[in-house]
Amino acid sequence: MVKIILNKNEIDLFKEMAVLACVGGHSQIVNGEKRAETLLSHNLIGQAGSIALNILAFESREKGVQFYKDSRDIANANPHKGDGGQDIIDTNIDIKTSMVRNKVKNQNPITYILPVRPKEFKENWTYVSATIFEDNMKDNEVIVDVWGWAKSEDLEYTTKPFDGVYGRINKDLRPFPLPDIWPSHLKPFIKKPEFLTF
After folding, report:
1. What is this structure's pTM?
2. In three state form, how does the secondary structure of the chain look?
3. Measured CA distances, 14 to 28, 100, 118, 146 (Å)
4. How far is CA 165 from the centre of its chain?
5. Residue partners of 34: CB distance under 8 A and separation at least 6
């Protein structure tokens, strides 16, 4: 597991992007009126995970933030289409971020499942799992725990804890670094494995 601590500027950025992501009004998590009420909350959690993943992946923190912004600018240009699950620009990498709620006792995120819903599942993709404790989602600091990754073929179809997802338990995920699936124009900026803090 890699812990990424987001600062105030990064928080302001992902909050802005979460609001823009609401324009399309699309969520795989909930439907109907409940979806409308909670869409921003889900987008905030998702965007926090996305910017954290970019910071984790790239050698320069500034470059990671810029690549995150570049990827969101593309998605925001066509908000009703969304980002297609692409959380790092020009790659088949999708991060799934879950909130660990205070009201549920005895939660251990290592037993959480990396959930990929059937509509989101794609062959030859890399899926990353992250969690955020509710207490760690603050205005001036957000702590994102990025657990590991799985290839599409690593995921198994299950009906628990959701109503049918492809998934893998966090403790069984592959460790970082991410696989060498980078396009040539991104390779010079990838973080070297020895700089990952576990």
Report:
1. 0.89
2. CEEEEECHHHHHHHHHHHHHHHHHCCCCCCCHHHHHHHHHHHHHHHHHHHHHHHHHHECCHHHHHHHHHHHHHHHHHCCCCCCCCCCCCCCCEEEEEEEECCCCCCCCHHHCEEEECCCCCCCCCEEEEEEEEHHHECCCCEEEEEEEEEEHHHCEEECCCCCCEEEEEHHHCECCCCCCCCCCCCHHHECCHHHCCC
3. 19, 19, 26, 17
4. 16
5. none
CA 122 to chain centre: 16
Phi, psi (degrees; rounded to nearest 5) at 43: -65, -35
CB of 100 closer than 8 Å to CB of 68? no
Distance CA 170, CA 152 (A): 15
Question: Along the chain (198 residues), what's the average pLDDT of each consecutive run of 10 residues?
Answer: 97 96 61 66 96 96 97 86 82 96 82 93 97 95 97 92 88 94 95 63
Domain edges within the chain: 2-103+115-185
